[in-house]
Automatic annotation (TrEMBL):
It comes from the Bacteria. It comes from Pseudoxanthomonas wuyuanensis. GO terms for biological process: transmembrane transport. CDD domains: TM_PBP2. This is Nitrate/nitrite transport system permease protein.
Protein backbone atom coordinates (compact mmCIF):
# COMPACT_ATOMS: atom_id res chain seq x y z
CA UNK A 1 0.00 0.00 0.00
CA UNK A 2 1.48 3.33 -1.04
CA UNK A 3 1.83 6.51 0.96
CA UNK A 4 -0.76 8.29 -1.22
CA UNK A 5 -3.33 5.66 -0.46
CA UNK A 6 -2.69 5.91 3.28
CA UNK A 7 -3.06 9.69 3.19
CA UNK A 8 -6.42 9.45 1.35
CA UNK A 9 -7.80 6.95 3.87
CA UNK A 10 -6.72 9.13 6.76
CA UNK A 11 -8.48 12.21 5.29
CA UNK A 12 -11.71 10.26 4.73
CA UNK A 13 -11.72 9.06 8.31
CA UNK A 14 -11.24 12.60 9.65
CA UNK A 15 -14.10 14.01 7.51
CA UNK A 16 -16.43 11.23 8.72
CA UNK A 17 -15.65 12.21 12.29
CA UNK A 18 -16.26 15.92 11.70
CA UNK A 19 -19.40 15.91 9.42
CA UNK A 20 -22.66 14.68 10.99
CA UNK A 21 -25.01 12.38 9.04
CA UNK A 22 -27.32 13.99 6.46
CA UNK A 23 -30.51 13.08 8.36
CA UNK A 24 -29.13 14.66 11.50
CA UNK A 25 -28.42 17.94 9.68
CA UNK A 26 -31.97 18.06 8.19
CA UNK A 27 -33.66 17.35 11.52
CA UNK A 28 -31.51 19.90 13.30
CA UNK A 29 -32.31 22.57 10.73
CA UNK A 30 -36.06 21.88 10.97
CA UNK A 31 -35.98 22.06 14.77
CA UNK A 32 -33.98 25.27 14.67
CA UNK A 33 -36.39 26.80 12.15
CA UNK A 34 -39.43 25.84 14.20
CA UNK A 35 -37.83 27.32 17.29
CA UNK A 36 -37.00 30.54 15.49
CA UNK A 37 -40.51 31.07 13.99
CA UNK A 38 -43.20 32.13 16.48
CA UNK A 39 -46.23 29.87 16.90
CA UNK A 40 -48.69 32.40 15.45
CA UNK A 41 -46.56 32.99 12.38
CA UNK A 42 -46.17 29.25 11.85
CA UNK A 43 -49.95 28.84 11.99
CA UNK A 44 -50.37 31.62 9.45
CA UNK A 45 -47.92 29.88 7.13
CA UNK A 46 -49.90 26.65 7.31
CA UNK A 47 -53.18 28.34 6.31
CA UNK A 48 -54.03 28.26 2.60
CA UNK A 49 -53.76 31.67 1.05
CA UNK A 50 -56.88 32.91 -0.75
CA UNK A 51 -55.71 34.60 -3.89
CA UNK A 52 -58.63 36.75 -5.07
CA UNK A 53 -57.51 39.17 -7.71
CA UNK A 54 -59.68 42.27 -7.57
CA UNK A 55 -59.67 44.76 -10.41
CA UNK A 56 -57.84 47.99 -9.68
CA UNK A 57 -59.74 50.95 -8.39
CA UNK A 58 -59.25 52.76 -11.67
CA UNK A 59 -61.15 50.03 -13.52
CA UNK A 60 -64.01 50.21 -11.03
CA UNK A 61 -64.21 53.95 -11.48
CA UNK A 62 -64.06 53.78 -15.29
CA UNK A 63 -66.86 51.21 -15.31
CA UNK A 64 -69.08 53.00 -12.77
CA UNK A 65 -69.04 56.66 -13.68
CA UNK A 66 -70.67 56.57 -17.18
CA UNK A 67 -73.94 54.91 -16.05
CA UNK A 68 -74.06 57.02 -12.88
CA UNK A 69 -73.64 60.22 -14.89
CA UNK A 70 -76.26 59.05 -17.39
CA UNK A 71 -78.84 58.31 -14.71
CA UNK A 72 -78.19 61.59 -12.91
CA UNK A 73 -78.46 63.53 -16.16
CA UNK A 74 -81.77 61.81 -16.95
CA UNK A 75 -83.14 62.61 -13.49
CA UNK A 76 -82.04 66.22 -13.86
CA UNK A 77 -83.76 66.61 -17.23
CA UNK A 78 -86.86 64.89 -15.88
CA UNK A 79 -87.00 67.25 -12.90
CA UNK A 80 -86.53 70.33 -15.08
CA UNK A 81 -88.94 69.40 -17.89
CA UNK A 82 -91.73 67.65 -15.95
CA UNK A 83 -93.51 70.86 -14.81
CA UNK A 84 -93.64 72.04 -18.43
CA UNK A 85 -95.60 68.97 -19.62
CA UNK A 86 -99.30 69.38 -18.94
CA UNK A 87 -101.78 66.50 -19.06
CA UNK A 88 -105.49 66.07 -18.37
CA UNK A 89 -104.54 65.19 -14.78
CA UNK A 90 -102.17 68.11 -14.28
CA UNK A 91 -98.44 68.52 -14.72
CA UNK A 92 -96.25 65.50 -15.35
CA UNK A 93 -94.94 64.16 -12.00
CA UNK A 94 -91.27 64.60 -11.25
CA UNK A 95 -88.92 62.08 -9.59
CA UNK A 96 -89.93 63.28 -6.12
CA UNK A 97 -93.63 62.81 -6.80
CA UNK A 98 -93.03 59.34 -8.21
CA UNK A 99 -90.98 58.39 -5.16
CA UNK A 100 -93.75 59.59 -2.84
CA UNK A 101 -96.29 57.55 -4.84
CA UNK A 102 -94.06 54.48 -4.53
CA UNK A 103 -93.86 54.88 -0.76
CA UNK A 104 -97.64 55.27 -0.64
CA UNK A 105 -98.09 51.99 -2.54
CA UNK A 106 -95.83 50.23 -0.03
CA UNK A 107 -97.90 51.67 2.84
CA UNK A 108 -101.05 50.31 1.19
CA UNK A 109 -99.43 46.89 0.90
CA UNK A 110 -98.46 46.89 4.58
CA UNK A 111 -102.00 47.89 5.60
CA UNK A 112 -103.50 45.16 3.40
CA UNK A 113 -101.19 42.53 4.92
CA UNK A 114 -102.26 43.63 8.40
CA UNK A 115 -105.93 43.38 7.45
CA UNK A 116 -105.36 39.94 5.94
CA UNK A 117 -103.62 38.73 9.09
CA UNK A 118 -106.48 40.05 11.24
CA UNK A 119 -109.05 38.32 9.00
CA UNK A 120 -107.19 35.01 9.21
CA UNK A 121 -106.95 35.35 12.99
CA UNK A 122 -110.74 35.79 13.15
CA UNK A 123 -111.24 32.69 11.03
CA UNK A 124 -112.39 34.66 7.99
CA UNK A 125 -111.12 34.92 4.44
CA UNK A 126 -109.54 38.18 3.33
CA UNK A 127 -111.31 39.51 0.25
CA UNK A 128 -109.65 42.88 -0.23
CA UNK A 129 -108.41 44.08 -3.62
CA UNK A 130 -104.88 43.09 -4.67
CA UNK A 131 -102.24 45.70 -3.97
CA UNK A 132 -99.45 46.89 -6.23
CA UNK A 133 -96.98 44.40 -4.74
CA UNK A 134 -99.50 41.58 -5.18
CA UNK A 135 -99.84 42.50 -8.85
CA UNK A 136 -96.06 42.33 -9.25
CA UNK A 137 -95.92 38.76 -7.94
CA UNK A 138 -98.90 37.79 -10.11
CA UNK A 139 -97.16 39.05 -13.25
CA UNK A 140 -93.90 37.31 -12.28
CA UNK A 141 -95.66 33.98 -11.77
CA UNK A 142 -97.49 34.35 -15.06
CA UNK A 143 -94.42 35.16 -17.12
CA UNK A 144 -92.49 32.34 -15.45
CA UNK A 145 -95.21 29.87 -16.40
CA UNK A 146 -95.48 31.18 -19.96
CA UNK A 147 -91.74 31.18 -20.66
CA UNK A 148 -91.35 27.73 -19.08
CA UNK A 149 -94.07 26.32 -21.33
CA UNK A 150 -92.49 28.02 -24.33
CA UNK A 151 -89.09 26.51 -23.53
CA UNK A 152 -90.54 23.03 -23.08
CA UNK A 153 -92.04 23.28 -26.57
CA UNK A 154 -89.35 25.27 -28.39
CA UNK A 155 -86.15 23.55 -27.24
CA UNK A 156 -87.08 19.98 -28.36
CA UNK A 157 -88.48 21.27 -31.66
CA UNK A 158 -85.36 23.37 -32.21
CA UNK A 159 -83.05 20.43 -31.52
CA UNK A 160 -84.89 18.19 -33.96
CA UNK A 161 -85.04 20.96 -36.57
CA UNK A 162 -81.31 21.56 -36.26
CA UNK A 163 -80.46 17.86 -36.57
CA UNK A 164 -82.88 17.09 -39.42
CA UNK A 165 -82.96 19.23 -42.57
CA UNK A 166 -86.26 17.71 -43.66
CA UNK A 167 -87.99 18.51 -40.39
CA UNK A 168 -86.56 22.02 -40.53
CA UNK A 169 -87.93 22.49 -44.04
CA UNK A 170 -91.32 21.16 -42.92
CA UNK A 171 -91.84 23.56 -39.98
CA UNK A 172 -90.05 26.61 -41.41
CA UNK A 173 -93.12 27.99 -43.28
CA UNK A 174 -95.27 27.63 -40.16
CA UNK A 175 -92.70 29.41 -38.00
CA UNK A 176 -92.30 32.27 -40.45
CA UNK A 177 -96.08 32.78 -40.67
CA UNK A 178 -96.91 32.50 -36.96
CA UNK A 179 -93.93 34.39 -35.58
CA UNK A 180 -95.07 37.94 -36.56
CA UNK A 181 -98.61 37.52 -35.20
CA UNK A 182 -99.37 40.10 -32.53
CA UNK A 183 -100.24 38.90 -29.02
CA UNK A 184 -103.39 40.99 -29.17
CA UNK A 185 -104.55 38.81 -32.06
CA UNK A 186 -103.92 35.61 -30.09
CA UNK A 187 -105.72 36.89 -27.01
CA UNK A 188 -109.37 36.49 -28.17
CA UNK A 189 -108.72 33.01 -29.56
CA UNK A 190 -106.94 31.84 -26.42
CA UNK A 191 -109.63 33.37 -24.22
CA UNK A 192 -112.44 31.54 -26.02
CA UNK A 193 -110.59 28.19 -26.02
CA UNK A 194 -109.61 28.40 -22.34
CA UNK A 195 -113.06 29.57 -21.25
CA UNK A 196 -114.64 26.60 -23.03
CA UNK A 197 -112.04 24.13 -21.71
CA UNK A 198 -111.91 25.15 -18.05
CA UNK A 199 -115.23 24.75 -16.29
CA UNK A 200 -116.21 24.84 -12.66
CA UNK A 201 -116.56 27.50 -10.05
CA UNK A 202 -113.16 26.91 -8.41
CA UNK A 203 -110.63 25.51 -10.92
CA UNK A 204 -107.12 24.57 -9.85
CA UNK A 205 -105.70 27.46 -11.90
CA UNK A 206 -107.66 30.67 -12.49
CA UNK A 207 -108.78 31.20 -16.07
CA UNK A 208 -107.13 34.61 -16.23
CA UNK A 209 -103.78 33.11 -15.19
CA UNK A 210 -104.02 30.34 -17.80
CA UNK A 211 -105.04 32.76 -20.55
CA UNK A 212 -102.15 35.14 -19.86
CA UNK A 213 -99.63 32.30 -19.58
CA UNK A 214 -100.69 30.72 -22.89
CA UNK A 215 -100.58 34.08 -24.68
CA UNK A 216 -97.05 34.61 -23.34
CA UNK A 217 -96.09 31.11 -24.49
CA UNK A 218 -97.52 31.61 -28.00
CA UNK A 219 -95.54 34.81 -28.51
CA UNK A 220 -92.25 33.96 -26.75
CA UNK A 221 -91.41 30.48 -28.04
CA UNK A 222 -90.14 31.63 -31.46
CA UNK A 223 -86.80 33.18 -30.41
CA UNK A 224 -85.90 30.04 -28.44
CA UNK A 225 -86.98 27.76 -31.28
CA UNK A 226 -85.04 29.64 -33.94
CA UNK A 227 -81.86 30.06 -31.88
CA UNK A 228 -81.89 26.43 -30.77
CA UNK A 229 -82.22 25.24 -34.37
CA UNK A 230 -79.40 27.53 -35.52
CA UNK A 231 -77.13 26.44 -32.67
CA UNK A 232 -77.80 22.77 -33.31
CA UNK A 233 -77.22 23.08 -37.06
CA UNK A 234 -73.93 24.94 -36.57
CA UNK A 235 -72.20 22.15 -34.64
CA UNK A 236 -68.74 21.30 -35.92
CA UNK A 237 -69.00 18.44 -38.40
CA UNK A 238 -65.85 16.86 -36.99
CA UNK A 239 -67.68 16.27 -33.70
CA UNK A 240 -70.49 14.51 -35.52
CA UNK A 241 -67.98 12.40 -37.40
CA UNK A 242 -66.36 11.42 -34.10
CA UNK A 243 -69.77 10.38 -32.84
CA UNK A 244 -70.26 8.15 -35.86
CA UNK A 245 -66.84 6.59 -35.40
CA UNK A 246 -67.56 5.89 -31.73
CA UNK A 247 -71.02 4.60 -32.69
CA UNK A 248 -72.76 6.78 -30.12
CA UNK A 249 -76.45 6.25 -29.58
CA UNK A 250 -78.88 9.01 -30.45
CA UNK A 251 -79.25 9.90 -26.76
CA UNK A 252 -75.49 9.97 -26.17
CA UNK A 253 -75.00 12.08 -29.29
CA UNK A 254 -77.63 14.51 -28.07
CA UNK A 255 -76.30 14.84 -24.50
CA UNK A 256 -72.56 14.66 -25.19
CA UNK A 257 -72.21 16.53 -28.48
CA UNK A 258 -75.31 18.50 -29.46
CA UNK A 259 -76.47 20.09 -26.20
CA UNK A 260 -73.06 21.36 -24.97
CA UNK A 261 -72.39 22.97 -28.36
CA UNK A 262 -75.87 24.48 -28.75
CA UNK A 263 -76.22 25.65 -25.13
CA UNK A 264 -75.10 29.28 -25.73
CA UNK A 265 -77.62 29.62 -28.56
CA UNK A 266 -80.38 28.08 -26.44
CA UNK A 267 -79.83 30.51 -23.58
CA UNK A 268 -79.63 33.44 -25.97
CA UNK A 269 -83.01 32.43 -27.34
CA UNK A 270 -84.43 32.06 -23.84
CA UNK A 271 -83.21 35.54 -22.90
CA UNK A 272 -84.93 36.97 -25.96
CA UNK A 273 -88.07 34.96 -25.21
CA UNK A 274 -88.15 36.22 -21.64
CA UNK A 275 -87.98 39.84 -22.80
CA UNK A 276 -90.69 39.29 -25.39
CA UNK A 277 -92.86 37.43 -22.90
CA UNK A 278 -92.60 40.23 -20.31
CA UNK A 279 -93.69 42.85 -22.85
CA UNK A 280 -96.50 40.66 -24.16
CA UNK A 281 -97.78 39.96 -20.67
CA UNK A 282 -98.28 43.61 -19.76
CA UNK A 283 -100.22 44.24 -22.98
CA UNK A 284 -102.35 41.12 -22.48
CA UNK A 285 -103.18 42.05 -18.89
CA UNK A 286 -104.23 45.53 -19.92
CA UNK A 287 -106.47 44.32 -22.74
CA UNK A 288 -108.02 41.30 -21.02
CA UNK A 289 -108.16 42.91 -17.56
CA UNK A 290 -106.35 39.92 -16.07
CA UNK A 291 -104.63 40.42 -12.70
CA UNK A 292 -101.12 41.83 -12.92
CA UNK A 293 -99.18 45.02 -13.51
CA UNK A 294 -100.97 45.65 -16.79
CA UNK A 295 -104.34 45.68 -15.04
CA UNK A 296 -102.92 47.99 -12.36
CA UNK A 297 -101.85 50.50 -15.01
CA UNK A 298 -105.23 50.33 -16.75
CA UNK A 299 -107.19 50.69 -13.50
CA UNK A 300 -105.18 53.74 -12.50
CA UNK A 301 -105.75 55.24 -15.95
CA UNK A 302 -109.48 54.69 -15.60
CA UNK A 303 -109.44 56.04 -12.05
CA UNK A 304 -108.27 59.47 -13.14
CA UNK A 305 -107.39 60.81 -9.68
CA UNK A 306 -104.64 63.33 -9.03
CA UNK A 307 -102.32 60.55 -7.86
CA UNK A 308 -103.03 58.21 -10.78
CA UNK A 309 -100.35 59.59 -13.07
CA UNK A 310 -97.64 59.22 -10.43
CA UNK A 311 -98.76 55.66 -9.68
CA UNK A 312 -98.77 54.80 -13.38
CA UNK A 313 -95.21 56.09 -13.71
CA UNK A 314 -94.21 54.00 -10.70
CA UNK A 315 -95.61 50.94 -12.45
CA UNK A 316 -93.81 51.81 -15.69
CA UNK A 317 -90.45 52.17 -13.91
CA UNK A 318 -90.99 48.93 -11.98
CA UNK A 319 -91.85 47.09 -15.20
CA UNK A 320 -88.59 48.27 -16.73
CA UNK A 321 -86.51 47.38 -13.67
CA UNK A 322 -88.07 43.91 -13.45
CA UNK A 323 -87.39 43.31 -17.14
CA UNK A 324 -83.76 44.31 -16.63
CA UNK A 325 -83.48 42.08 -13.56
CA UNK A 326 -84.95 39.08 -15.37
CA UNK A 327 -82.44 39.51 -18.19
CA UNK A 328 -79.55 39.63 -15.70
CA UNK A 329 -80.79 36.50 -13.95
CA UNK A 330 -80.97 34.65 -17.26
CA UNK A 331 -77.46 35.86 -18.12
CA UNK A 332 -76.11 34.46 -14.84
CA UNK A 333 -77.83 31.13 -15.49
CA UNK A 334 -76.30 31.08 -18.98
CA UNK A 335 -72.80 31.56 -17.56
CA UNK A 336 -73.32 28.86 -14.93
CA UNK A 337 -74.67 26.40 -17.48
CA UNK A 338 -71.80 27.14 -19.85
CA UNK A 339 -69.28 26.60 -17.06
CA UNK A 340 -70.87 23.26 -16.14
CA UNK A 341 -70.89 22.18 -19.78
CA UNK A 342 -67.18 22.97 -20.16
CA UNK A 343 -66.31 21.08 -16.97
Amino acid sequence: MTAATLAKDELAAKSAEVEPPVGTVAVGAAVAGAAAVPAGEAAMRKRPKLRVKLPPGREWFDAAWPPVVGVLAFLGLWTALAPMVQTSLGALPGPGDVWDAFKGLLVEYSAARADAAAAVADGQRYSGPPTFVDQIFTSLKTVAMGVTLASLVAIPLGLVAGMSKRFNAAINPLVQVMRPISPLAWLPIVTMVVSASISGDDPALPKSFVISAIVVMMCSLWPTLINTAIGTASIDKDLLNVGRVLRLTWRAKLTKLVLPSALPYIFTGMRLSLGVGWMVLIAAEMLAQNPGLGKFVWDEFQNGSEKSLSRIMVAVIVIGLIGFGLDRVMLVLQKLAGRDARS
